[in-house]
Design goal:
This protein has about 625 residues and is of the alpha+beta class. The chain is about 55% helix and about 10% strand. The chain has 26 helices and 11 strands. The strands form 2 sheets. Strands 1, 2, 3, 4, 5 and 6 form a 6-stranded antiparallel β-sheet that branches. Strands 9-8-10-7-11 form a 5-stranded antiparallel β-sheet, with helices on both faces. Strand 8 and strand 9 form a beta hairpin. Helix 17 runs antiparallel to helix 18 and helix 24 packs antiparallel against helix 26. It is globular and about 90 Å long. The relative contact order is 0.15. About 5% of the residues have low confidence.
Length: about 625
Amino acid sequence: MEDFFQVELILAFILLVGAITSFALEKVKIEITSISLLLALLFFCIFRMENWPTINELAFIFTSEAPLAIVGMFMVSAALSKQGIIERFTSYLQELTRLGFHPFLLLLLTAVACFSAFINNTPVVVILLPVAIALSRSLGVASSKLLIPISYASIFGGCCTLIGTSTNILASGLMSSSQFYPNMEPMKMFELTKIGFPLMVLGIIFVIIFGKRLLPEREALSKIIADIDRKEFISEAIVLQDSAIVGEKVKNTSISKVQGVRLLDIVRNGKTLSTSLSDEELKEGDRLILSCKPQGLIDAAREVRGFKFFDQIDLGIEQINTSEAIMVEAMVRPSSGLLSKTLVDADFRGRFNLTVVALHRRGKNLQLRLNSLKLQTGDTLLLLGTESSVESLRDSREAVLLDNAPLPVNKKPMRAVLAVGALGVIVTVATMGLLPLHAAALFAAGLLILGKSISFKEAIRSVEWNLLLLIYSMLALGLVMQKSGASAIMAELIKTTTTFGLSSQWQVIGALFILYIFTAMMTELLSNNATIAIMTPVALMVAFQFGLTTNEARAFVLTCCIAASASFMTPIGYQTNTFVYTVGGYRFKDFAKFGIWPMLIYLFGTISIVGWLWDFFPK
């Protein structure tokens, strides 16, 4: 029996460390890691070990209500975004810039936090990115002075309500299924507010007072390059019939030697080529897409042999033209149709007549691997093309264009009212306890689909299914950790650490402190949802080991909820931080240098508020 217990315990920790390592290194997709973890957990069920869940017990996690609630909230948030609720608000922001930087920032961050307390903060931040970049010019500051504050404000707001982030919803489901506190109720709609709201106020005050001074002066990549290559033209040339250069590699032709001319793409039989362009052998009728400086354009037309430029002769094909190019930065949207496609499959040239000049992911230029990379949420593309081509991409809503603030969309008012009303129904019904949150959220999503505020296809696309797989896999891992005793060991370690050198009166406060630190460290490596799935059972076990009541044990879970979402020190700990990372031209250390202060505010603020509200401090 002892040997089996040891084997199960070792297996649980191996799977935990393996999952953390895979998520942190990101060598494989989140969904691949999640599925692999689920399969591994199911495989070990075959051996029917005493301290390991059965297949039926693992299958029971799929009846959890929390993921259903998260699905419903994704759909409601998507409907609010589609109906332009946030864009309508942003149209007033330009007027507020005349108030000056600090008053404007107060109103902006307060609004972001309020939006994020009730809807998914991802679309809030995504929509406000181009707004912040545009308004920074009116305020006379670099966009980097606004983007991190916007991301942080969305985190501040998400910590205030049950539906502010999927982390809180997941924790609520785990609370109500605790084996140590079987009578514990799910989290109430505004139960976190008494902790999150004071912290939000302190966080916003800190950012307003110190943000302008402590945040770096950085600009978006597109703005820097646009200043360097201000006058650049997109041009096209065609390889003529019976030309001597047919069969030659591009690098050996005269066009590669003309200064001020850059080959962007080759179009052959209506399709762009995915191979290395310099080594490509030219064929009759190939169309070369070129980026030219004004003088380079003149030199190319005079010196290059074997090509014909522009519309100098009737070539019998669609007109070849020259037009002034603009360079813009675009960020891949969550739920975009471009996700998981390579640049070849995305076909920017064929669909939008645009060329990808560079791709940045988490601050790194990935230009050398452009053809093989698959696009991810938050990837920032530097695109070159004509103004009409850029507008074509903007209308497609596949990416967020960062050149201009979005205009208020002309949507049907009744559908916007229905979207806001659906959110109001969720908050009211869940607060009054008339329906469980998952039922209220799915009911509201159904009403929005029937009311045509969002189509069924759009609703399905709005759900981050890889997040759902992650949640289910971590719920299964959490169950294994409980059955194998791994959670008990982690809880015992926390309890032992707090009892060592602390008087009995301060041990509960010490446990809260260690629990917060441990959770905050994990959330920088894992997603906040994976972290809360692991740490909620541990938090309840720590409370149980201290002999705390059901109400007191809730304080431990709420502390974990704040710690799991309050990720300020790295650009990879929270999705909104990742979005602003490349867009704002930040470096990794910028988050550490500025984020340590909100982190300390939330650490000591949470412990102080929880200790005071639950009377944990010694008399």
